[in-house]
Amino acid sequence: MSETVLLFSYGTLQDKAVQLSSFGRELQGHADALVGFRQDWVEITDPAVLATSGKTHHPIVHYSGEDADRVPGTVFEISHEELLAADAYEVSDYQRINASLQSGLQAWVYVKA
After folding, report:
1. 11 burial level (CB within 10 Å; 0-12, 13-18, 19+)
2. pLDDT in tens, 24-53
């Protein structure tokens, strides 16, 4: 695999079916949490994403600035090419940012655009 990056997922990118469709493999990761964010829900209307995830609503997070706020999820080590595949999967409601996790790691995460 080429140079790897860290991707934090709190939603459907943790699902095996989404991983197989987006990356062609099941990802291995470990539990962590996003600090200073709160989770909400967004309605998904993109037919391809609906078909892949099987869900009409996906979780979405927004910055709260409150250190006590935590969003649990999973950190995955992926290739740069897989990160671009994740970009293609995510709908326009999301934007990718680099954020600090509870563990102290820095990872890419999709937050409310």
Report:
1. buried
2. 999 999 999 999 999 999 998 999 988 999
